[in-house]
C-alpha cells in the first residue's frame, strides 16, 4: 500500500497565486456602474434638449 500522507512539493513553502476576489473589486465595479448610468442619463438629457430646440 502507498502512503498518501506526504504533501505535494508545490504546497511545501511555495507562494501560490491568490484566486479570490480583491477587496476593492466591488468598489471599482460600483463606481464603474455609476459612471455608466450617469453617462446614459446625460445622453438622454442632451437628446431631449436638442429635440426641444429643433421643434
What does this protein structure show overall?
By secondary structure, this protein is mostly helical. It has 1 helix and no strands. It starts with 24 loop residues before the first helix and ends with a helix.
Q: Summarize this, please?
A:
This protein is mostly helical.
Q: Could you report the average pLDDT, rounded to the nearest whole number?
A: 82
Please give the radius of gyration in angstroms: 27 Å
H/E element sequence: H
User: In which range does the helix fraction lie?
Assistant: 40-55%
Say how many strands there are.
Answer: 0
Return residue spans where pLDDT drops below 50 for at least 5 consecutive residues. none
The secondary structure category is mainly alpha
Proportion of strand residues:
under 5%
Number of helices: 1
Largest sheet, in brief, is: none
N-C termini distance: 88 Å
